[in-house]
Write a structure and sequence with these properties.
alpha/beta, Nucleotidyltransferase, domain 5, five-stranded mixed beta sheet, 14 helices, about 40% helix, globular
């Protein structure tokens, strides 16, 4: 099957579209990366996504309308990608769309005095995608895992295991998106031995500061240019490393609720109080991302698993400061990009959702209970069949 994977991360940088050719079934599943295309969100859509997901007051009407607007933009991005690749839509068998996360709370909490509930919401209406493209579309992957007692995340470890397992080498697949997450695959491991969790912030805080200090002109610190011109603020780094999330044991997930706009504003306020330079704040929060990743590995992984190789994907893989810090903190581990394994670093998560959709379409479980905490394997995703 030719399958499209569609992904938009917590940073809401835009829409990633991947074309994958997939056949067979685990353990002999074959998934070949074929092409990747990036489409930015329209300005109104991105502004609304960031405003609402950062906790601004809104209405059910606005969320409903944004759900359909993002669905339209996902569909248009898929059509544009196929046109660019000169691949007719009728040659695509299936679409797997993660959607745009607006809220995620994998741990049950009290709700208005009623029973404790976990919750997640991804928008980008799959019915719109299927109708506009004429292609069966699977979306909304996270709720079934939550219903099965899991945290609804991380979901990509299922694919990391298929792609990167090795009989002799222990590997960690690290994705540095808005949030950073790891999949730990011991040498020769079965699925039940895989460990996965969100280590904490990825690019989210850096992006927040870059946007603030540029008055919205820059969405991120390209090539860490501003951060590299700054210096570390040890007292701020020590303060950030005392964040309670870092000491929570896996399984655990994080998002804007922990490291979003409010967190960035807290750092900005600290910098204003202590008269810190913007470039020094950017440098420090960039180092914080790398240090929190290394700290998570030292706390939760290295005491249990021998790790020979770290395979990095996501936007952070292109940040020279973060990558240099990781290399300094993990001197005995080979660090490689997922691109070296045939999947561009910025495209791996969209590629993963193509595979997750393929498995769901064939009625096979596509979560990893050892990663999400679910009580049992489950088939994630809801299928929409077009006319």
């Amino acid at each position: 099957m030719n399958v499209l994977g569609i992904m938009s991360g917590t940073s809401a940088d835009g829409i990633e579209i991947v074309l994958a050719n997939i056949c067979c079934a685990p353990p002999r599943l074959s998934a070949r990366f074929k092409a990747h295309h990036h489409v930015p969100f329209s300005r109104p859509a991105r502004e609304a996504i960031l405003r609402i997901s950062n906790g601004a007051a809104t209405t059910a009407a606005e969320i409903g309308q944004l759900n359909f607007l993002v669905g339209e933009e996902f569909a248009a991005a898929a059509i544009a990608a196929c046109r660019r690749w000169r691949v007719p839509l009728n040659r695509i068998s299936l679409i797997g769309s993660h959607g745009q996360t607006m809220f995620h709370q994998g741990v049950p909490t009290p709700f208005w005095g009623a029973r404790r509930v976990a919750a997640t919401m991804q928008i980008g209406e799959p019915s719109v995608i299927a109708e506009r493209t004429g292609i069966p579309t699977i979306g909304d992957f996270r709720p079934t895992d939550i219903a099965a007692g899991g945290q609804g995340a991380p979901l990509v470890p299922f694919v990391d295991y298929l792609l990167f397992r090795d009989p002799r080498r222990g590997r960690v697949a690290l994705n540095i998106g808005g949030i950073a997450n790891v999949t730990v695959i011991p040498a020769g491991a079965g699925q039940e031995a895989v460990i996965a969790f969100d280590t904490g912030p990825g690019n989210m805080i850096v992006d927040g500061l870059a946007s603030h200090f540029s008055k919205g002109r820059a969405r991120y610190d390209r090539d860490a240019r501003r951060a590299l011109s700054g210096r570390l603020i040890p007292t701020l780094l020590a303060k950030l490393m005392r964040d309670p999330y870092l000491r929570v044991k896996p399984p655990k997930t994080a998002g804007r609720e922990q490291f979003g706009r409010a967190y960035a504003e807290h750092v900005i306020a600290w910098g204003r109080k202590h008269r810190a330079k913007p470039v020094d704040l950017l440098h420090t929060v960039s180092v914080f991302t790398s240090l929190s990743i290394a700290d998570g590995l030292h706390r939760c992984v290295f005491p249990r698993v021998r790790v020979d190789e770290l395979i990095v994907s996501g936007g952070g893989a292109n940040n020279p400061l973060m990558m240099a810090q990781l290399a300094a903190m993990l001197p005995r581990i080979k660090i490689a990009s997922s691109s070296e394994y045939g999947v561009p670093s910025e495209a791996k998560e969209a590629f993963a959702f193509a595979i997750l959709a393929y498995e769901a379409f064939h009625g096979r479980a596509n979560n990893l209970p050892s990663a999400t905490g679910a009580r049992h394997p489950a088939i994630l995703g809801k299928l929409t069949i077009p006319r």
